[in-house]
Amino acid sequence: METKITGQHFFDALNGRDFGIIEDLLDPNAQLLFPKSQPMLGKKRILKFLRLLFRAYPQLVFSVQRIIRQENLAAIHWTNRGKNRHGEPYENEGVTLIETADNRICFISDFFKDTEKF
Fold it and tell me: Which of 9, 17, 53, 55 is the most buried (most CB within 10 A)?
């Protein structure tokens, strides 16, 4: 079944810090692969990680540059910009792969250019 979720939905929810929408988008057994981190399994673990991320980077905003879709897969090319909790500027560019099943996100994998700041 092809999903109705687009990568833009996910990034809009991230930018709005709308954890309710993010929770609704995620499958209970979703997996997140994030650079320099162990794989995160389960919706609760992913939400906890995102809350910690936005505590460390409270002004982080993503701009979706393009989305490539194929059935239940999406590759989202993004740039981001903001400040960390110490007020230091941050920006990066990357791609997030999202896989869906039964109209829920079941897999997320992030790739970004500058991993030195994490």
Answer: 9
